[in-house]
Specification:
With 170 residues, this protein is α/β, with parallel strands linked by helices. It contains 5 helices and 6 strands. It is found in: Cytoplasm.
Amino acid sequence: MANHIVLFEPLMPANTGNIARTCAGTNTELHLIEPLGFSTDDKYMKRAGLDYWDKVKITYHPNLPAFLETIPENGELYIVSKFASKAYTEADYTNTEKEHYFLFGKETTGLPEMFMRQNPEKCIRIPQNDEHIRALNLSNTAAIVVYEALRQQGFPNLETTHTYENDKLK
């Protein structure tokens, strides 16, 4: 079983770098659907988490259809969108036989509208006040969703307690 964060045409290097850091800390795989709005060699990527990228399994996909073809038979796709009617906490991520893919849209325009209309049953959302903001920050949203999946899975292969006695930074 594995969790996967999938970014559709990400534009902001800081968001992608922060998500890479979350992936490194949670053993989550990262998928980037091109085109990207930046170079992964960008100096902003270095500030936002590029130094963790050697700890992250990253797969690049040339477009959305190419990514969709890579989802295995035991894969479950979740489309994270403010236009969903189902909360992310209502989904069951506990099936250890499945690969869980969390697909996030581009920061400015989200995912293609036709794709969203064709897959409403796969859509999940984080509750928010739509009157005050257009959307939550992408990197925050990715962290919220992946940590809910990990919580339901019992935080596999992650340290859930830490004491100063075993601190590696001493």
